[in-house]
Structure formats: C-alpha cells, structure tokens
Amino acid sequence: MDTDCNVLQDNIKLMRDLDKAIIQHFVWIDQTHKLLICSDEEAQSGYLEEDAHLRCEFGRWFYDSGRDKLNEYPALDKIEKLHKDLHLQARFLIETHNRGKGISSKDFSDFTDSSLSFKIELNNLQFSIVNQICSVDHLTGIWNRQSMIYRLNQEYERVVRTESGCVICMIDLDHFKEVNDRFGHLVGDMVLKRITEICKDQLRKYDSIYRYGGEEFLLCLPDTRLENASPLMERLRQTIADTDMGIEEQPDFRITASFGTTEMTKEKGPADAISEADHALLTAKAKGRNQVVLWQEEE
Hints:
The structure is a single chain. The chain is an alpha/beta fold. The protein contains eleven helices and six strands. Helix 5 (76-98) packs antiparallel against helix 6 (105-134). It is elongated.
C-alpha cells in the first residue's frame, strides 16, 4: 500500500533531520561570506574540492539517507542541482578572492540568488512534508478523510484517461460501540490499529486505505473491476472475522465488518462512487452484517 502505520513517525523524523541539515547549510552559507572577507586557508580547504557538495553537513545527510527518503517529492532534482551549483559558485568566488582579483557584483549576486532559490525550494519541501503529516490519521497511520478526496480525484483522472477500472469499498466494523463500552477507548483504538494492519496485509502495494471516520474505512483499488473485487473483499472480510483482536480482558475476542463496494468509472466520479458504496454498506448491515454487498446487486 502507499502508506503504512509508521508513516507519521517517519515523516516527523524526516522533518527533524531535514531541519537540522538546512540549519547546517545556512551556517555554511554564512561561513562562505566570512571567507570572502577574511583569509583563512585552513577553513577554505573544504570549499575547494570538486566534490565539496558531498562533504558539507547537508550533502552528507542528503546523499547518505535523505535523498532516498525524499524520493517521492517532485522538486528533489531541482534542490540537488541548486545545492551543487551553490558549492561550485562558492568555490569560484573563493578561488577568485585568493588570486587577489575583485569579485564582480554579478558573480556575487548569482551566489546570493542561488542561495535564495535554494532556501525557497527547501521551504517548499518542508511544506510538502508538513502537508503529508497533516494528511495522515494520527491513530492508524493511514490517510485521513481530508486527504481522501484529493487522492480519489487523482485516481478518477487516471480512470478517465486510461478507461481502467477502480473499485471503491466502504468498510464498517460491526457493533464497534460495544468494544468501547465494554473495554474502553484505548482497547477500541488498538482494535482499529489491528484492522488497519489486516487491511495492509491483504491489499496490494498500490491499493490505498483511508480512515473515513470513527470505525469506518474506505478502500481504493486501482486497476480493478467490480466483478474481480468481490472475492478480494470476501477474503478480507473472512480474515477480519477469523482474527483474534488480542484483547487481554477477553482472549480470542473477534470482530466482524460489513462491506459496501462499487466501481468508479468515467461516468461516475468519487462523490457518486462513495455514495453508492455507502448505500451498499447500509444494505449489508440491514441484511445482518458481516458480509460484502456489491452495488450492482441492488440494480
């Protein structure tokens, strides 16, 4: 799946590591300005190497682990280029200074402009990470409802473009209020996390799961037709029903779930698909719960 239960913690750690690396690089920029005023050959040594961009604090973090963790962000290549260009420009300025030649206002302006562009791109990157953190349900680590519509709209655009199938499924845990009433909300939270883990294990890497609200989840299965989704959802339903929730107060405690499933098509966008899946879910609950109902069964 495209997210996991550790995504929130991973992104928070990534944000902290990025902040530290950014601070170190602005220290480097400040030090560069000082070197252009004060001659310190020992301090200059790290600036004059061809691979200086790999040796600074930001570069060591970026190429050691940061780049892999940030691989999904579209501006990453631009940030990498700006960072390398900054070091090349700093090297040129210091070498010009060491030769006793005056640094032109244009060359210095190019360096300061690159520094500003680098800062702007890093700020945009930080905003993207913060936005992703805010898009994740803090309890389960899966996408929250606020991020759901945006991502479903993206998937709908792909459906329209490629005319491929995409199944939407609403899941509601049966009698979940009784879990909270009998064992408390901490146990209820544990059950929600366990259900999330089961869904992650059963679904494909490119499927996605959203915390729709309370004990309700929404699944999005790209490249899937409705007739092919039924056995997949039936297997997931059975797995949930067969799984011990691990409640200490009551060993071998199990819970069931009801499923309402439909297909998003070129003629039927996210809002309509969600409405149909929700209607099918209500039908599943009316029929006795713990079952999968397809929207087409009601037509």
